[in-house]
């Protein structure tokens, strides 16, 4: 693989079975492409220390709500972690090292810190990919509660999640069971990368946007939309052979796509360019 070292490390980490992927390591490898001198071990050690300090508060009484309260008190009251509402679309919010160092971030990075502390306390939690707002919950059947790491660890019930969903999308959007389904670790990482992809796209940073797409495709090589978007970037940069391959694969997999006619026109232009 002709990848930078950080991407090679990311690729190696995600080759494991999904439940064996170390989310914190993989997220730090994502950040390492932005910060080449970043030492993942430094931030993993910080998470170890944080979990150790929470553990000292718990002693023997480790029932679920007590653990949640202990993590909340430590993260939000003692350390001052907070959701970044002032500059939500700052790419730094999507990097785990920055979220730890700056003590602020977006829902998914704060959720990751929370998950990693909980895991070290032998209280596993999982990510919940609710549209528009990432949540977490304890990883056992019938837990019945969700935690909003972006809002100071607020404990939510299903009705609260629906209310939050409607605050984002309006009252016409109702809760569906799949909105509160646990995400896999690969899906968790893909959501971080998708956030970065959209931030860089809106900023016009095509190189970093392409880097995010390429890593999503390492996670999900058959994703039609990511193949399409990579093909469009290749086309814009005159990489005709690679563009044709991705765009043709997209059409083969989604022949009835709404943008199929536009993609076919681009493929015709690529053929014309190659014959010039």
Automatic annotation (TrEMBL):
Residues 42-193 form the Protein SirB1 N-terminal domain. InterPro entries: SirB1_N, TPR-like_helical_dom_sf. SUPFAM superfamilies: TPR-like. Belongs to the UPF0162 family. This is Tetratricopeptide repeat protein. It comes from Laspinema olomoucense D3b.
